Amino acid sequence: LCVGVSSCHRHRHRHIHHNFLRVSKKPQHKGNYHSTLLLPTAPLSPHNSPPTQTHRKQYYHNRKMSILEYNGAAVIAMAGKDCVGIASDNRLGIQYQTVAMDFKKVFKMNDTLFVGLAGLATDVQTLDQLLRFRMNLYELREERTMTPQVFTNLLSNILYEKRFGPYFAEPVVAGLDEKGSPYLATMDLIGAIETTKDFVVSGTCDGNLYGMCETLYKPDLGKEELFETLAQALLASVDRDALSGWGGVVHIITKEGVMSRELKGRQD
Amino acid sequence: GPNCDLVNFSEYISKNLALYELSNDGMKLSTHAQANFCRGELAKALRKGPFQVNVILGGYDENVPNGGSLYIMDYLGSCHKVNYGAQGYASNFTLSIMDRDWEEGMNEEQAVKIVEHCIRELNMRFLLNQSNFIIKVVDKDGVRTVKADSDPSDN
């Protein structure tokens, strides 16, 4: 279970968690994407081996950071009784420095479909634009709204297309299907889909999020209870993660519409 | 960022924006559109040959509340609309100052005061001695230099 992790054991703790989850066996991220991220003027290398140590390091930065942890994010989605909720934090950072406190990672695709994207901010934004584009194209051609299952498969396809130079984003899909029942799905950065009935999480503190959701989740929660559960799970998880936080936003999707609320948490 | 990419990228973007106006019957792009174009170019180049340029883009639009909007982009292509921003080593010193001083609905004079505060702080605390800064203002009448301790024609 720890193969390939020994050289960078300190920061791969979150991937060791994956091997014990009942939900899915997410693939271990290869060492390729773990690079010592350099000063702003140095480019990231998504291919092959990490940059050598001859490059300058930020003087306070001696911990190897994955590209997926560059900007920081936390995203949860949970299913309730005929409703789904999706939530994200508000932080946008560049490694340890916070740049913005209102950068949301959940995007509305249509009234019954939201997608949350955690990972490198540039790819989060690119994927948001790409998904809206592909979805609009689909709806123009097919003359019908895209179901969450089709959307998930579309997203998976878009991600796998870039298999050997991927988008560094791990999405979470939350929506209501045609019958109005909740649909949740998650993927890794290359599009391996996992659908669940209870909750899905993604982000730099996904270990914390899994723990909180596992503890607080109950099936068939109503709108308000689902909001409360999501809010508590998110806030408690990001409080123990330096890279996510600064409040959050929760969207509860029901047949009647979407209820969105801002969360005020610890502003640090 | 490094001057090579700085000059190359900024000229590339500004000339393409001018081209848009020429090709589309004089239609001007909003600041939001320009920022998104800039972000798109950075994102496209990222996986080919990245521009190592961190951008702060500010512009004035009539139909936007408060008129001015500021966008901050890093070299990877993540773009965000902000009220104040800084790139490079300056950000370590000045973001906290702006967190404190910035208020909703300030006028130009107050904004320039904050920028000057940031410059004073850098002169005091930053190890590199960079005493020459240029302050520019963008408003409905265009871009103008408010204060220049060095020769503006250098830029």
Characterise the protein shown here:
The complex is a heterodimer of chains A (268) and B (155). With 268 residues, chain A is of the alpha+beta class. Chain A has five helices and 14 strands. In chain A, a hairpin with a 2-residue loop joins strand 7 (106-110) and strand 8. Chain B is α+β, with helices and mostly antiparallel strands and 155 residues long. In chain B, strand 2 and strand 3 (79-82) form a beta hairpin. Chain B is globular and about 45 Å long. In chain B, 21% of the residues are buried.
Give a brief outline of the structure.
The complex is a heterodimer of chains A (268) and B (155). With 268 residues, chain A is an alpha+beta fold. Helices cover 26% and strands 27% of the residues of chain A.
Name the descriptors:
heterodimer; A: 268 residues; alpha+beta; 5-stranded antiparallel β-sheet; 5 helices; 14 strands; disordered N terminus; B: 155 residues; 3-stranded antiparallel β-sheet; two-stranded antiparallel sheet
Uncertain ranges of chain A: 1-59
Mean pLDDT of chain A comes to 84
Number of strands of chain A: 14
Q: Please give the order of strands in the largest beta sheet of chain A.
A: 12-3-4-13-14
Helix content of chain A: 25-40%
H/I helix tally of chain B: 4
In the predicted model, the low-confidence regions of chain B spanning at least 5 consecutive residues are none
Tally of separate helices of chain A: 5
Beta-strand share of residues of chain A: 25-35%
Shape type of chain B? globular
